[in-house]
Amino acid sequence: MALDRLLNVARKEFSDHITSRRFVIILALFLVISAVSIHDGIENYNNSLESYNEQLQRMEEFEDPYSSWMPEKPSIMYVFISMMSYMTALGGILALAIGFDLVSKEKESRSLKTLLSHPIYRDEIINGKVLGGVGALGFAMALSLAIAIAMLLIFSVVPTVDEFAAILVFGAASLGLLLAYSALALTMSTVAKESGNALIYTLVIFAIVSSLLPMLGMMAADALAGDPPEAPEMGPMGKQVVGTASSGGYFVSTASQSVVYGGTEDPAWREYEEEMKTYIEKRRFINDISNLLSPQMNYYTVAMAVTNPRIALMISSYTDAGVQEEPGSLAEALGRVWMNIAALIVFPSVFFAATYVKFMRMDIR
Fold first, then answer.
1. Alpha-carbon gap, residue 31 to 149, rounded angstroms
2. Which DSSP string corresponds to 81-98?
3. CA angle, residues 166, 26, 178, in degrees to nearest 5
4. DSSP label at 182?
C-alpha cells in the first residue's frame, strides 16, 4: 500500500463529501440547531450563575448559620448538555448520509471496476474512503465546536483551561458517536448490492443499536434479576428505596435511617439491605452489558460524565445517605466511564474491519 495513492483517494473522498449537496444541507441544519441549543444553554448558565451570586450575597449579608455550606458554582459545561440530544439525532443522520452509498453507488455505476483497472490496490481504495469520511466528520465536528466556543466568547463566557479540555473531550466523544454510525453505514454499503438496500439495512441496525438494545437490556434485567427483596414486615423504617433514571433504565439508591433495637442494629433489616444491594448490582450489571453494545448509550454516559460529572456520579454510584462523593477532576470522571469510552472505540473499529475484509474479498465484475 503506497501512502501517496492512499492520500489521493482520501483527498478525493473528502472533497466529494464536503461539496455534495446532501452533506452541505444536513451539515447546515446540524450547525444551526447546535447553535440554537448552545444559545439556550448559555442563557440557562447565566441564570444559574446569577442565582449562585445571589445566594453568596445573601449568605454574606445575613450571616447565614449554614454559611459553612457553599452552593455549587455552575460550570459552563452545562451549556453543552442540550447539544447532546441533537448530536444523536442530526449527527447520526449526517454520519449515515456519508457512508450508506459510499461503495454501493460505485458498484451500481460500474466506476469501481474502472478505478481498479488503474495502478491502485483495493486496500488503498477502502482505506482512502474511510479516511475521507473520517475527515469529513471531523470537519463537521470541529466546525460545530468552533461555533460553540465563538458563541461563548461573544456572550463573555471565557472557558478555563480545564473547561476547554472538557469541551475537547466532549467533541471527541461526539466524533466517536458519528464514526460509529458512519462505520455501520459503510459496512452495509459494502455488503448490499444497491444503495437503496444499503440504506434500509443501515436504518434497521441503527434503530436496533440506538433504541431497541437499551429496551431489551431493561427487559432482560427485569427477567434475570427477578423481583426485588421484600422489606421486613415489622420494625422501624430503614432505608427508603428511591428509583432513579440511569443510562440503562433505572437503579436504586437509598436514604439511610437508624434501625436499632436496644442499641444494636436490626438483623432482619441488615439482611434486607444486603439482599437489596445484591439485587441492584445484578440489575445494573445486566443493563451495563447491554448498553455497551449501543453507541448512543455509551455516548450519553461519557458526555454526561464530562458535562455534568456530579449527576453522572449520582447515577453511577451506590452510596449511603450522608456520603456524598465529589466528582473530582476530568481524568477521574473519565476513569469511571472507561468501559464506555472503550466501547465507542471498539464499535466502529469492528465495522471498519468487517468492511475491509468484505471489500478485499468482494467480486467486482
1. 13
2. HHHHHHIIIIIHHHHHHH
3. 40
4. H
The three cell numbers of residue 30 are: 446540524
Residue 244 is assigned to a structural domain of this protein: yes
Could you tell me if 268 and 307 lie in one domain?
yes
Dist. CA 350–CA 352, nearest whole Å: 6
If asked whether residues 251 and 116 sit together in one domain, one would say no
Which residue(s) pair with 244 in the sheet? Answer: 251
Q: Residue 363: which residues within 8 A CB-CB, separation 6 or more?
A: none
What confidence tens digit (pLDDT) does each residue in 219-275 have? 877 777 777 777 776 544 444 444 444 444 434 444 444 444 444 456 777 777 777
CA dihedral 327, 169, 246, 277 (to 10 degrees): -50
Residue 269 in domain: yes
292: left (phi over 0), alpha (psi -120 to 50) or beta: alpha
Give the dihedral of Cα atoms 132, 136, 139, 140; nearest 10 deg: -160
Question: For the purposes of burial, counting CB atoms within 10 Å of the CB of 91, is it exposed (0-12), middle (13-18) or buried (19 or more)?
Answer: buried
Residue 181: give the domain boundaries: 3-213+341-361
- Is the full-model pTM beyond 0.85? no
What is the helix (H) or strand (E) element at residue 242, kind and residue range? strand 240-246
**The total number of structural domains that make up the chain:** 2
pLDDT > 70: percent of the chain: 79
Q: State the DSSP string of 257-310.
A: ---EETTEE-HHHHHHHHHHHHHHHHHHHHHHHHHTT-HHHHHHHHHHHHH-HH
Same domain, 345 and 330: no
Residue 46 placed within a domain: yes
